[in-house]
């Protein structure tokens, strides 16, 4: 939500079309065509790992060595069995000398295989996945910075966090599975199939015939689980958003005794999340037992056929042992392929949510900058704006604010007071008309250049976790400690800062109890003073403090407003009686404008609002 909009949530709810907070983009994410293993999402996953092709090629090279080890071991073992069988039929001297070199080489091959397997897994999981994961999260962070405020308004913070953390983590895990499927698994299957035919084509036939069936069943069953993983991850985002909202609003939940209702809602979401996870896991996990079953059939067929060939065709027993070992080795890549195919669907569901966010349209941002000093002359020329096209809000708004003027904006809830500030800060762009600052169209300036013209002091204090000095210097991070202390003294907060345990180095946050709400407000005024922007936006900053602190805040705000163009969103009309210009809004239009006295003399809508507050 836009930072200052938090101060008028009720107003915004009336100004904007209600938004379903727990399902941003999820409906359209779920409306996909028929699932395929390598659909557009799968192809994009492959493109995403393209920058890591160097690491992946290294992993592929290790896989080739591992395949060589897998091929050499059964051949060597078959040769040793043949030698031992010949010795049993016709003993010869130095059996041990004949077998030991082969046994030593076999042991070395298995040791190399174990070491390379560990190294390959370490490389994929701790190098490639980390690089992929970090780079993707950086891109999401950059994307979030370029998205319009409207996206932040409509999307719960917990859902965004879930995409950046949980979903990206699941995508990073996909690299290992993809490499295993495309390189290790299929390549090993092809090599073993060729060796089987070279060794004995008769025993190779039942093994090779069952392998394509295994791969087909794996792919088919894996795709069945995708819809459940889609729902699982979307519900995971909703759960995170609900937990974040519950924690943020914990005092409100306790005050209204809504703990049980909140728990019921969380339990209901959690059960749906669990059910879809169970179905997804079941459909993914059932693939491997099917592969094992088909592999066992192939193993039995080879064993029976091999026994018959030994007895009837005189095939050497070592050849049969070699084929049996290769048949057993074929189960390993089949099981990895089965696991990989099932896990790719799991990963694709996470990738859809991440790609949806990456593909969102970014707000246009011109490169214009402010040249020279800004006087603070602000003009609205026939401005139209609405959050929802079907519900016009601001219509033909014309305002001319001279430099140094104090302009108050008043009106009932939903009149458009906060929206005017939204447009000034370019959190939203107007649909018609122009906003001019010192004669220059604000739309020609970059958003950063535009926002650097404004300082804001709102009801919400906007403190961040950090030291007092860091919070005061938030808009001017390179300011010296002496300047921070000077500004805090002008804002009447130096005296209580020095009484804190570590003074200006005391760590505080928005939820900190080390400083009161009034003291927090004084810190935000000091922050605005230090930023020294030519235009100031003020919300009612004294509504939640005691009378003595209110006087201090008012005195600090008077210093802050000196010489600046000020826009004051007024809730208590008594605080803006000295404004140079009061704009009275009603349904997005200025119905009255003038000074406090002139508006009272008109006995119109402003006078009605003023007397309704002080009728008693």
Would you give an account of this structure?
This protein is an alpha/beta fold. The protein is 62% helix and 9% strand. The chain is built from 23 helices and 12 strands. Strands 6-9-10-3-11-12 form a 6-stranded mixed sheet, with helices on both faces. A 4-stranded antiparallel sheet has the order 2-1-4-5, with helices on one face. Strands 7-8 form a two-stranded antiparallel ribbon. Helix 4 (53-89) runs parallel beside helix 8, helix 8 packs antiparallel against helix 9 (201-224) and helix 13 packs antiparallel against helix 14. Mean pLDDT is 78; it is low at 1-34.
Rough outline:
elongated
How would you characterize the largest beta sheet? 6 strands, mixed
If you average the pLDDT, what whole number results? 78
The whole-angstrom Rg is 35 Å
Query: What order do the strands of the largest sheet run in, or round the barrel if closed?
Result: 6-9-10-3-11-12
At the fourth CATH level, what is the homologous superfamily of the largest domain? ABC transporter type 1, transmembrane domain
- In terms of DSSP E residues, the strand content is 5-15%
Tally the helices.
23
The CATH topology annotation of the largest domain reads as ABC transporter transmembrane region fold
CATH architecture of the largest domain: Up-down Bundle
Q: State the end-to-end CA separation.
A: 37 Å
pLDDT < 50 runs, ≥5 residues:
1-34
